[in-house]
Write a structure and sequence with these properties.
The chain has helices spanning 15-27, 40-49, 55-59, and strands at residues 2-6, 9-13. The chain has 67 residues and is α+β, with helices and mostly antiparallel strands.
Length: 67
């Protein structure tokens, strides 16, 4: 989880949501000013899976020392 502490609380972004955002940005890469990377499909796939290892942990995280 990515935790951003704010006054009055925190914003929590799951790693798997973050990887979805990265895939969305990777899919949009490239325009008339610069081209897509070689192996673009592989880059999009990698961006969309790079935090997949967190899925099971985030579904059932263990309690911290303060519960």
């Amino acid at each position: 989880m990515i935790v951003s502490r704010r006054p009055g609380g925190a914003v929590i972004v799951m790693q798997t949501d973050h990887q979805d955002q990265c895939a969305t940005m990777a899919r949009a890469w490239g325009n008339e000013g610069f081209s897509r990377l070689d192996h673009w499909d592989d880059v999009v796939l990698a961006a969309g899976l790079h935090d997949e290892g967190w899925r099971s942990w985030e579904a059932d995280p263990p309690p911290g020392p303060d519960g």
